[in-house]
Amino acid sequence: MNAPKGKVRMNSNRLRRIREAALFAALLAIIVVPFLVFEETMLSWVAALRDGGYAAAAVALAFVGLLVADILAPVPSSLVGVALGATFGSVGGTLLVWLGLTGGTLIGYAAGRRLGRPLVRASVGGRDLAGLDRLVARHGLWALAFLRAVPVMAEASVILAGAGAMRFGAFLAVMALSNLGVALVYAQIGAFGVEAGSMGLAMAGAMALPALAWLIQKAAGHARGAAGGPAGGAG
């Protein structure tokens, strides 16, 4: 006797969630373990950069550039943000992370205006684009603010705002404030890691915010699906 379609779908969704969790755990280990193994070396690099004058300025410029590029390229923005906090402290790191994130949102908005929805679809796929459409249509700028810390969806939502010609002034105000909150968290984590003498702790903290936001977004999508509507995901 064939299994009911609902049960097959439920088992498929459960297996997909298990694969996603396993992939995330593996990525977390790949990122954090090297920082634990080479912790002393990395702490000495941070100390050298803090006193390095032009070298520190070059690192700041390069890392801000990476955050800007994250809108269209697979850059681990949380790790870059924490590294900036570790190197330049909570205040300097917050400012640099905010500049990078805000620069990226401006580029993403402009790219969305010029290239439209095909660029969003290329970023997240058709299924997740449908979920993102519903989320933004229902909650507008609040959705963009929440998704600031969700991997992939953060960038896709910004591009979608541009593709939908969202009012630029309101978009910029919300993004500036949201980016400031994210920047403050990442910079504080990095600065705390250096003060505690643990880069592994800092890198684990760097993964915590996007992981939590991703899990909340996935849970909200599954809840909507269970209530009768299709669920969107972070991909």
From TrEMBL:
<feature type="transmembrane region" description="Helical">
    <location>
        <begin position="21"/>
        <end position="38"/>
    </location>
</feature>
<feature type="transmembrane region" description="Helical">
    <location>
        <begin position="168"/>
        <end position="187"/>
    </location>
</feature>
<feature type="transmembrane region" description="Helical">
    <location>
        <begin position="79"/>
        <end position="101"/>
    </location>
</feature>
<feature type="transmembrane region" description="Helical">
    <location>
        <begin position="53"/>
        <end position="72"/>
    </location>
</feature>
<dbReference type="InterPro" id="IPR015414">
    <property type="entry name" value="TMEM64"/>
</dbReference>
<keyword id="KW-1003">Cell membrane</keyword>
<comment type="similarity">
    <text>Belongs to the TVP38/TMEM64 family.</text>
</comment>
<keyword id="KW-0472">Membrane</keyword>
<dbReference type="GO" id="GO:0005886">
    <property type="term" value="C:plasma membrane"/>
</dbReference>
<dbReference type="InterPro" id="IPR032816">
    <property type="entry name" value="VTT_dom"/>
</dbReference>
<feature type="domain" description="VTT">
    <location>
        <begin position="75"/>
        <end position="191"/>
    </location>
</feature>
<dbReference type="Pfam" id="PF09335">
    <property type="entry name" value="VTT_dom"/>
</dbReference>
<feature type="transmembrane region" description="Helical">
    <location>
        <begin position="141"/>
        <end position="161"/>
    </location>
</feature>
<feature type="transmembrane region" description="Helical">
    <location>
        <begin position="199"/>
        <end position="216"/>
    </location>
</feature>
<keyword id="KW-1133">Transmembrane helix</keyword>
<protein>
    <recommendedName>
        <fullName>TVP38/TMEM64 family membrane protein</fullName>
    </recommendedName>
</protein>
<keyword id="KW-0812">Transmembrane</keyword>
